[in-house]
Amino acid sequence: MASCEFVDTCAFFKEEFRDNPHTKEFLCSTYCEGHFTTCARYKIAVSEGMSKVPRDLLPDTLKTAKCFSGI
Ligand code: SF4
Fold first, then answer.
1. What percent of the chain has pLDDT over 70?
2. Does residue 65 sit within a domain?
3. Which end of the chain has fewer CB atoms < 10 Å from its terminal CB, N or C?
4. What is the domain range of residue 16?
5. What's the gap in Å between 19 CA and the centre of ligand 1?
6. 35 alpha carbon to ligand 1 midpoint, in Å?
7. 4 in ligand 1 pocket by Cβ < 6 Å?
């Protein structure tokens, strides 16, 4: 399966997730290297640009993503 086009610019993918590395591993395999079109960060990046994605937003936080227009 293809990887997300934002892996080079996405803070979540690039930075360590020190508090819970297992959660990051799970989220990356589920979203970044899998179903990236369902990722909250991806949805905002596509519609508003990666610079508008809240730094601490997790891929599975769709409730926050819905606050942005067009999602
Ligand atoms: S967290 Fe979302 S936007 Fe970032 S690389 Fe993974 S799938 Fe793409």
1. 87
2. no
3. N
4. 11-57
5. 19
6. 9
7. yes
